[in-house]
Amino acid sequence: MVTAIAFDPHARTPLHRQLYDAIRGAIVAGRLRPGARMPSTRYLSEQLDLARNTVLNVFEQLLAEGYLVARPGSATFVADELPDRALRAARRVQGHDIKAPHPPSATETGVGLSRRGRELADGPIWARVPPRVPGAEVAFRPGLPALDAFPFERWGRLLARRWNRSGADLYDHGDPRGYGPLREALAEYLAAARGVRCDVGQILITTGTQQAIGLAAAVLLDPGAAAWVEDPGYPFARAALTAAGAALVPVPVDDEGIDVAEGIRRRRDARLAVVTPAHQFPLGHAMSPRRRDALLAWARDAGAWLVEDDYDSEFRYVGRPLAALQGEDPERVVYCGTFSKVLTPALRLGYVVVPRRVVGAFLAAKVGADLRTPPLEQAVLADFIAGGHFARHVRRMRVLYARRQDALLAAAGRFAPSLTLRPRPAGMQLIGWLPEGMDDRAAADRVTRAGLQAFPLSGLRLEPSRAGGLILGYAPVPAERMADCVRRLHAAVVSGE
């Protein structure tokens, strides 16, 4: 049977792969039965007119995968137990076929979840994540960078070089704090670009800002402890705090940032506050010096911690970037950053700069969460930074995003009278304020059905507000396509009036 294989010399599939597929296919289909004796490699090479090394390599592959077994002093045989069976779980059927039901929600079952689990499953946080529609454009998706301008070829070359040249240090468990050269590059970059005061021993590499905030909540908050959150604010920061059992205290935001006096009035005894001082998400304000001083003073008086989410501070178009809050009190502020907004969200790399006195606790929490962040991407990113590519990419994106914001403002002024937009000196998104009384959730649904993506501002609030709007990410929209996208956006918004 094996000697009857017909090869196609003109096929793109090489001969060794054709031989492997034919033998494996015959074994899996049962034409070569378990225990059947295989012809010798010499005999097969002669009969099939193939180089003997080709046949030997195929046999070695089938032996390695468990389709064949070699018995010492004897021939090669088809394995009694095929590896495909070992990769499939045995199905237990009790009297009838089992079909997987649609998983019920926590409110449908009423049992099985902890109180915290019910808060996560049924609370507003996850319900506020906008739906992802297959085939929809990325136009106006908040938080998404300009993937059309990402240096894929250069990244690919760096990745291939690392893959081919790296040793065991990148393929074992390694340092749970993160790849050393990346942490060293970050310490230098953060000191120069953000005014962060730290050494490399205070930096942990995470899978993003959300994990960094989750580590802070796990280490610094007891279950039930109060934590300030900006309202409106980043929903996944709230998710991380909720997962740690924190009691969320919504604190309103105005043009100067978080309203510290109101936070004190609501819960002076809060143990932690998560803030975005350089560029408040989603409203885009920078925290004023007066508010920064008041926030630090409250934290020192209350013995509280501040978690600074510095998610997109690189993209400031007017003047120099604002220095990080961490630089004013390195022992009170936990500083978080991410590469998802600067490079690509698929990278899943972030970092946290931890006060010296709690480094050990954060490291233990990180090990308990996932042992370590995947190292290969860290090494490539370290090479990307060391080669000067990161700094050049950030410079290019500042210019590109400033142009795309201008394009959005110009197009909205001409084609979207239903929206009111105000320019911002930084960031990757603007708020498109809706007419009074218009439901921004319904408007966002209509935008989604039109094949675009936008986030309702009310979905980021814990307390209701009469002011509705859509968060419009302009970073992923090329300037030459902005007018068309804005026309479609406006048509979707007003279609429900």
Detailed description of the structure:
By secondary structure, this protein is of the alpha/beta class. The protein folds into 3 domains: 2-86, Orthogonal Bundle (Arc Repressor Mutant, subunit A); 128-144 and 392-494, Aspartate Aminotransferase, domain 1; 152-387, Type I PLP-dependent aspartate aminotransferase-like (Major domain) (Aspartate Aminotransferase, domain 2, 3-Layer(aba) Sandwich), CATH 3.40.640.10. 41% of the residues lie in helices and 11% in strands. The protein contains 18 helices and 13 strands. The chain has helices spanning 15-29, 41-48, 52-65, 83-86, 106-109, 115-122, 124-127, 152-165, 180-194, 209-220, 235-243, 260-267, 289-302, 359-370, 375-386, 389-415, 440-449, 479-494, and strands at residues 68-70, 76-78, 203-206, 226-231, 247-254, 257-258, 272-275, 305-309, 333-338, 350-353, 429-433, 455-456, 469-473. The strands form 3 sheets. It has an 8-stranded mixed beta sheet with strand order 3-10-9-8-7-4-5-6, sandwiched between helices. The chain has a 3-stranded antiparallel beta sheet with strand order 11-13-12. The N and C termini lie far apart (72 Å).
Quick structural gist:
By secondary structure, the chain is an alpha/beta fold. The protein has helices at residues 15-29, 41-48, 52-65, 83-86, 106-109, 115-122, 124-127, 152-165, 180-194, 209-220, 235-243, 260-267, 289-302, 359-370, 375-386, 389-415, 440-449, 479-494; strands at residues 68-70, 76-78, 203-206, 226-231, 247-254, 257-258, 272-275, 305-309, 333-338, 350-353, 429-433, 455-456, 469-473.
